[in-house]
Amino acid sequence: MRRVITYGTFDLLHYGHIRLLQRCKEQGDYLVVALSTDEFNAGKGKESFFSYTDRKNMLEAIRYVDLVIPEETWDQKEADVDRFHIDTFVMGDDWTGEFDFLKGRCEVVYLPRTPEISTTRIKNDLASQPR
């Protein structure tokens, strides 16, 4: 069984997220999603619209996702790869090269993003709408 892991906040879940998760699952048989906690996001200066619990529940309802774990620090990736016996680490290509340090532990794949959609774009579009 090939195990795959990806990381993200997955706020305002949209078709770009779904497409990424689908393509992650195509890399193997079992997909682990490490979901940024609210506390970790706060440390990055980010605030999600949906709580960690709500985002986790949404991800768990997606058929491509087998397991959701909390992402609590930047430094947990090596331990996660070992703990969950990961064969392939997958991220969007906006992170190209950032996780190459994992190549001694697993395959590292950077997938193209869905260019016309992003959570940031949705938030900006909503903020610019007249009330």
TrEMBL record:
Molecular functions (GO terms): nucleotidyltransferase activity
Domain of life: Bacteria
Coiled-coil region list: none
Keywords, in A-Z order: Nucleotidyltransferase, Transferase
InterPro entries tied to this protein: Archaeal_FAD_synthase, Cyt_trans-like, G3P_cytidylTrfase, Rossmann-like_a/b/a_fold
Domain named Cytidyltransferase-like: residues: 5-124
Alphabetized PANTHER family for the sequence: FAD SYNTHASE (PTHR43793:SF1)
Protein name (record): Glycerol-3-phosphate cytidylyltransferase
Organism for this UniProt entry: Brevibacterium pityocampae
Organism ancestry: Bacteria, Bacillati, Actinomycetota, Actinomycetes, Micrococcales
Gene: tagD
